[in-house]
C-alpha cells in the first residue's frame, strides 16, 4: 500500500478482530493498531511528521479522534516528537515503561547530541540523514509533559503487551501485537537505518545506545520469543522468526 506522495509505506497484519499496521518512513516508523474504529498509536515520528501520522491513520480508514491512547517505545525525539502535538490536539494519553516517564518529561535527555554525531558527519550517508531529520525537528527538546506509566491493566485497542526491552534507553519497551504474532521492537532491534551500511536485523549504531550491555541482553531475550514478524523502529518490516532475527543481530561482527 503506497501512500500519496510516498512519504511512507503501510504494511498490514490481521489478527482476529483487530489489525496492526506498520507505517514505514525513510527516517523512522510508527505503528497503528485498529480494533473496530478504535485506535492505538505506538510512537509518533519526528515533530515534523505529525501530519504524516494523521495521514497514515486516514489512509487505513481511521480518524485521529479515535486514538484511545498512545504507547511510546522510548523518549527519543524521532519516536516521541509527533506525539507531543498529537496528544495535545486529540487529547489522548501517552503511556510508557515507568522508567521512561522522566525521560519523556525531559527531566533528563539521553540522546545522541551534536558531539556524538559530528565525528561521523564526514560520511555522506550521515550528512544526508542530518539534512532530512533536522528540518523534521530532530533538535527539539519538547517534552510529553503528562507522560504516564503503563496502567494496570493496559487495556488498549489491539491488545498490545509490553515487553521490557531496556538498554537503548533505560526504560525502552517493546510490544507484542497481533495476538503475539508481531514484535514492535522500537530501537532495541532494527532492520535498517539511514546511517547503517547493512540491511537486515541489527543493533542501532553505538552512538545512539545508552547502555550497550543491557541492550545486548534485551536482544538475547528476544531469541526466546515466538513472534514471526518484526515491526522495527527503523527499517522495513521483517518477516520470519523474530528469535532468528535477534540471533542474527547478536552474531554481526563487532557485537
Ligand atoms: Zn529511533
Automatic annotation (TrEMBL):
InterPro entries: Metallo-B-lactamas (IPR001279), NDM-1-like (IPR050855), RibonucZ/Hydroxyglut_hydro (IPR036866). Residues 27-234 form the Metallo-beta-lactamase domain. SMART domains: Lactamase_B. Gene3D superfamilies: Ribonuclease Z/Hydroxyacylglutathione hydrolase-like. This is Putative beta-lactamase.
Amino acid at each position: 500500500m503506497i501512500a500519496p506522495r510516498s512519504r511512507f509505506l503501510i504494511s498490514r497484519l490481521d489478527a482476529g478482530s483487530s489489525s496492526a499496521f506498520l507505517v514505514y518512513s525513510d527516517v523512522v516508523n510508527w505503528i497503528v493498531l485498529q480494533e473496530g474504529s478504535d485506535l492505538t498509536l505506538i510512537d509518533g515520528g519526528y515533530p515534523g511528521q505529525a501530519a504524516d501520522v494523521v495521514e497514515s491513520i486516514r489512509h487505513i480508514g481511521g480518524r485521529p479522534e479515535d486514538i484511545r491512547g498512545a504507547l511510546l517505545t522510548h523518549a527519543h525525539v524521532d519516536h516521541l516528537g509527533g506525539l507531543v502535538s498529537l496528544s495535545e490536539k486529540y487529547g489522548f494519553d501517552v503511556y510508557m515503561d515507568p522508567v521512561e516517564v522522566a525521560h519523556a518529561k525531559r527531566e533528563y535527555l539521553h540522546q545522541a547530541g551534536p558531539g556524538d554525531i559530528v565525528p561521523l558527519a564526514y560520511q555522506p550517508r550521515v550528512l544526508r540523514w542530518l539534512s532530512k531529520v533536522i528540518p523534521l525537528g530532530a533538535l527539539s527538546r519538547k517534552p510529553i509533559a503528562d507522560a504516564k506509566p503503563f496502567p494496570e491493566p493496559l487495556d488498549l485497542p489491539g491488545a498490545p503487551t509490553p515487553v521490557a526491552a531496556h538498554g537503548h534507553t533505560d526504560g525502552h519497551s517493546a510490544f507484542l501485537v497481533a495476538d503475539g504474532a508481531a514484535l514492535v521492537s522500537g530501537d532495541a532491534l532494527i532492520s535498517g537505518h539511514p546511517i547503517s551500511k547493512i540491511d537486515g536485523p541489527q543493533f542501532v549504531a553505538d552512538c545512539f545506545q545508552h547502555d550497550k550491555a543491557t541492550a545486548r541482553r534485551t536482544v538475547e531475550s528476544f531469541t526466546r520469543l515466538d513472534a514471526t514478524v518484526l515491526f522495527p523502529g527503523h527499517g522495513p518490516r521483517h518477516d520470519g522468526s523474530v528469535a532468528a532475527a535477534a540471533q542474527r543481530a547478536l552474531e554481526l561482527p563487532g557485537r
